[in-house]
Specification:
about 110 residues, mainly beta, 4-stranded antiparallel beta sheet, 3-stranded antiparallel beta sheet
């Protein structure tokens, strides 16, 4: 007789929670902007985060960081308003929704 095995594993389809506490500061006197957020939670494990930035309210988002840290230092040009957002992901490729956007402008110290 032929034995047919069954795969009892289930695919992880649950995304991580949206990161909270998303904020930034700094960027003065030639220092980088410090962007940070609280860790997300997941039913298995959070693998990392994707941080995006744009320079125009209606501009195109570009990815600035992908990795496991809950912070990023960004060097910006002075007197340009930057917008940021972040989301979490897990090993199965599930992504949380993005956080709300925050904006920051570094002022020229001169």
């Amino acid at each position: 007789s032929e034995f047919r095995g069954y795969n009892h594993s289930t695919k992880d389809t649950t995304p991580p929670s949206i990161p909270t506490g998303f904020d930034c500061n700094g960027g003065e006197n030639y220092e980088p902007v410090y962007i940070y957020w609280n860790p997300s939670t997941d039913n298995v494990a959070v693998t990392g985060y994707e941080l995006q930035r744009r320079t125009d309210f209606n501009g195109i988002w570009s990815t600035k960081y992908i990795g496991p840290d809950t912070y990023y230092y960004d060097f910006n040009n002075y007197d340009i308003l930057y917008y940021y957002r972040v989301r979490a992901f897990d090993a199965a490729g599930n992504y949380s929704d993005y956080t709300f956007e925050i904006s920051w402008m570094a002022r020229n110290p001169l």
